[in-house]
Amino acid sequence: MYYSLLKTLNSKLESIQECVPIEKDFEELTLAFNNEINGEILKLQNNVVRIQSYPVGKTNVSTPLADQKSEEKAQNNEKINFTSTFLYVVVGIGIVILFVLLYFELFPSYNKINFLCNLKFGKYAVHLAEKLVIKDPGNYKNFLILARAYEVLGDYTSSINAYRSAINLKDKNVNVFDKKDS
């Protein structure tokens, strides 16, 4: 019984390849058993270190529980890293969208409003087109893009009124140029 127990203990210690501290001396054990068991005790003695000779600063005895805890910590760190990376990406995209909207808001133009109309952002396109009309009410192109924005929004009566205003402004500008030439 001792022989099989010692053999199992030795195979376990060799598989983990670690030194295990103990308090007893092995020489007292060798006197009580036969040669077969004494051989296993010697193998065990090679795998075990006495506590007195074991360095005080080193208490790093790895156990399956400690390995499991360190593995759980590593998995938690990966989850935290993924979450923080995802958060940074989302915040970065939000900041970029904010700057684009701010750029559109501060510097509205015919091309930007046309781009918004192509993306089917009617409300925002109408808002920017109205800003353009307020900025330069004498330009018929501003009324044309306002009409297109209303059209994308689905407000067809306002769209028709904006088209009429654009036609009236264009006719007025053509008549002004004709009078100057005469």
Summing up helix and strand content along with how strands pair, one would put the structural category as mainly alpha
* Strand composition percent: under 5%
Helix content: over 70%
Order of helices and strands: HEHHEHHHHH
Q: Give, in spatial order, the strands making up the sheet with the most strands.
A: 1-2
Spans of at least 5 consecutive residues whose pLDDT stays below 50 are none
Number of strands: 2
Q: N- to C-terminal separation?
A: 126 Å
Radius of gyration, whole Å: 43 Å
> Averaging pLDDT over every residue, what do you get?
78
* Largest sheet: number of strands, sense, barrel closure: 2 strands, parallel
Shape: rod-shaped
Number of helices: 8
